[in-house]
Amino acid sequence: MSASNLNFLVLDDDQLLRFMMKKMLRSFSAAKVLEASNGTEALEILRVPETKPVDIILCDLNMPGMDGMEFIRHLGEAHSTASVIIISSHDDTLIAAVRKMALAYHVNLLGTLQKPVTRTQLEALILQQKSALPRKAAYASATPNFTLEDILQGIERKEFEPFYQPKVSFKTGLINGAEALARWIHPQYSVIAPYAFIELLEKSGNIDELTFLILEKAAIACQALHDNGHIISVSVNLSSKSLNNPALAEKITQAVRNAGVDPKYIMLEITESATMTDVAQSLENLARLKMHGFGLSIDDYGTGFSNMQQMTRIAFSELKIDQSFVKGCADNKNLCVVVRSSIEMAHKLKIECTAEGVETREDWDTLKGMECDTAQGYFIAKPMSLASLLAFCATHTPDVLFAA
């Protein structure tokens, strides 16, 4: 059963509900089930050195003392490796807001459930724990507080590598691209997730050092994919902080052409939530990149404050709906409205629409029904090395995606 060998913590102020949840989890052959009536008690349990690491926390929201939201904040600040399932009787709007909050705190959220919880619903979310393990390992690895000097030395030693997450067409199920996601392959701490180094590099004005290292490796990977008969594009993240540099567009173009790749196979993803400090220079760079043949994508759409203005300023090729709206949209009518309107707007602007964070069959089917163009997420595949991506492309068939 999916819960075997997993340790749980049930966090709820309702004693009867805790009893029922413990009974259900034990029927799944859970290794251990702990319980707490509020966030303070739960944190104390997690801090006991003798306690075996908790794999999944079932967390209520409205509790006396420390409520579920404050508990999730503390969990994120501690870089906990535990996954969370939010269980609440509140309406979808509040639960959706807490979902976004949990993701913003870098908490590994498996999903949300409305009370009363059914056995089938709970089991479906527990099954996602397997795909969450790579992310948990990344968060655990990021426990040390790295200095800017540590990070820059890692870049100089070329310890940073792109991990590639495949993108597939909803219509055909075939691979049509891959996003290059920066990972630090640290000699001591293994794989380090981006949140441990991106913010510090941006604040210090050193983000270009990482951007060009990842871009060069991604361009080489793109050529390797083409050499093996996989003619797909590769997406690379571009910080808006970099757009102030007048030489940026030419430098990016040269780096890609040096790898023997046509710029039309490189998609540059600009985070929608980031602010352009020099609008004129940023727009010039983006227009020049577009002129040179690069695709431009507005990343994390829906998380920023200038959505409409950004869409009309720049000739984007792709709109990527942020995973905080995609995950669980099959069961949340409010999320469905946001996602559907985003897809319709993208199509009216004649650009492709990609959904990030597609993790379940239900979300895949819902987005396909909305005529979204491309899917990216754990339902397709987790981020992987170039060697693994080549193997994935060689063996992938759309059959599993279209299976009943």
Question: What can you see in these coordinates?
Answer:
By secondary structure, the protein is an alpha/beta fold. It folds into 2 domains: 7-133, 3-Layer(aba) Sandwich (Rossmann fold); 144-402, TIM Barrel (Alpha-Beta Barrel), CATH 3.20.20.450. The chain is built from 17 helices and 14 strands. The strands form 2 sheets. The chain has an 8-stranded mixed beta barrel, surrounded by 5 helices. Strands 2-1-3-4-5 form a 5-stranded parallel beta sheet, with helices on both faces. Strand 11 (295-301), helix 12 (307-313) and strand 12 form a beta-alpha-beta unit. The longest helix is centred in the middle third of the chain and has 21 residues, at 207-227. The two termini are 22 Å apart.
Short description:
With 404 residues, the chain is α/β, with parallel strands linked by helices. Helix content is 44%, strand content 21%.
How is the secondary structure organized here?
Blueprint lengths: L6 E5 L3 H13 L4 E5 L2 H9 L8 E4 L8 H10 L5 E6 L3 H13 L3 E7 L4 H8 L2 H13 L6 H9 L3 E10 L5 E12 L3 E3 L5 H7 L2 H21 L5 E6 L9 H11 L7 E6 L7 H13 L3 E7 L5 H7 L4 E4 L1 H4 L6 H16 L3 E5 L4 H9 L4 E3 L9 H10 L3 H4 L2
Parallel strand pairs: 1-2, 1-3, 3-4, 4-5, 7-9, 9-10, 10-11, 11-12, 12-13, 13-14
Antiparallel strand pairs: 6-7, 6-14, 7-8
